[in-house]
Amino acid sequence: MMALFVLLAAFQSSLIHDWQYVQTQQPDTILSVNEQIIRECHDAWTSQDKFLHFSVSTALSGFSYYYLVSRSDTENRTARLYSLSLGAFAGLAKEIYDSRTRGCFSWKDIVWDGVGLTVAFLMFMR
What we know:
Order of helices and strands: HEEHHEH
Number of helices: 4
Largest sheet: 3 strands, mixed
Shape: elongated
Structural class: mainly alpha
Number of strands: 3
Mean pLDDT: 78
């Protein structure tokens, strides 16, 4: 239960952080996807937002894997698939939310989500 509160606090902190920097990030390019305009953000590779993407995807995948294997007796292979998919979906959903509220989509955030998923796999699922 404590882990859920930590994840929610990190997500809330990320939303507040993103709201504060709405005006500071300038779009680099414009990509047309499904008749919507998505601007790619010009952001740094290291920031608080990147750390939150990394840590939330790692924690979400790790804790969900632990729950599936130990509490619900799910097979290891299935638990890996569900846990990594949950972490990837959460990161992608956050970027889609950012693209609609801030007006830009950060591929660097997606990369940090992937790094977090890799760390979760290596730490918890091997």
